[in-house]
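pasting ABC-2 transporter permease for the record, 257 residues
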Amino acid sequence: MLKKLITFQKLLINSMPPININSKNTSEKMRYGLGAFAMFLMNMLIFTGNTSSSNDVTPILFPVISIWMINRMLYSDQRLFETVPVSRKYTVLNVFLLSIILIFILYIAVSIVGSAFVGILFGFLYLVYPQGFSQSPPEPAVHQIINTTKGNMLMLYILVIVIFAGVAITFIKNKKLRLTSFAGFAIIGYGLLFFLKLTMPISPITGKVEFLESFSIMPHAGTILLFVAIATIIISITSVLIGYKLYVGKSNSSKCY
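structre below
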């Protein structure tokens, strides 16, 4: 069973077409470029702040990249996963599983590269300015820490919703409808997050709204998390069912992405 699963996952990965950086489709490049730029601006507007770091923004990119890769795989010219005698339900479940696996692969890769870069940077700084590492941080900085567990849980739920709903959308055969659905999902999602940020309290440390910190100290953060958790479960299950329904009716001749 496990061997069959691993083999099928390899087929899915091998079905992903190589990225053609020399593509002459200018309109497609502009569309992807504008979409990426808009997402970058919204992520910076909502998630960044005085105390935020790349750890607050980078996780949002992982599901997006995973969905993009799944989309390319489903509409590639060489779909190896469709050449093996397995049920479409099995294929759909493996596609959703692959989207999660891709996120872990991206996370591990970024963590390794990031850790190596930070290690090299700190090593260089230590050689240049060793006395700076022997100084203790200011006393106020040690105690001015807010528990962001609730904010981190919210981010986890958001990522799960994005990956499941996004993968379900990739099964839409019509390209225009698929792109419109992606755009609508992004607008609704960012709109809700932006509205949520407007209702967040100011961080006592910076005097500004910091997404993770401000949400964690919201009076009704626990209630919001409960509703979001329920919504996450419902959306995840519904997305798998919708993905299956769409894939069963998907034409094998559809190759546009």
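The CA atoms of residues 50 and 206 lie 7 Å apart.
Confidence is low (pLDDT under 50) at residues 139-144, 251-257.
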